[in-house]
Amino acid sequence: MTVPQAGVSLEASANTGLARYYLVRAIVAAAWVAAALTVGVSNSAAAAILLVGYPAWDALANWFDANDSGGLLANPSQALNVAVSLVAAAAVIVGLQSGMNAVLAVFGVWAALAGLAQLFTGLRRWRKFGAQWAMILSGAQSTLVGVVFVKQAGGAAVPTIMDVAPYAGFGAFYFLVSALWLMFMNRKRTV
User: What is the pTM for the complete model shown?
Assistant: First the structure.
């Protein structure tokens, strides 16, 4: 739970905590993209670790965020996101045995479901925090990209980690925009 500093409202403190969370998510996603573009493209073991790690990290991040916001029971869309992301991480491990088409299909299903969960989380948070338009847009885009991934996975072309990297890159962008927007709103409230 975020504890407000002296002279800081509970709302501003919650917004600051959420802004920090979004900033951490942006940094981790950007680091994932950098790793995918450098070691992931040339080392299949590194690519496998990155592909399993991305949904696993999403599960962990959503779990921490939900716990900071009243717990998983109070945040059903985040609880769903945790469950879907954990299943996706395990499914990527299994999919790697079949090939990258299977992995991209798993990423597609995960992106669609996690995107819907993020969309609902953003809509729910709009009333309390405002400035959730980037998270709502990100959730909607993730859902659409998920459908595209599933369609591409059924094709003859063998995908690579480079097919997933732009998805993570957009995630980093949306989390960064959300963090900066909340920071701006907090600064504006205190002035």
Answer: 0.89
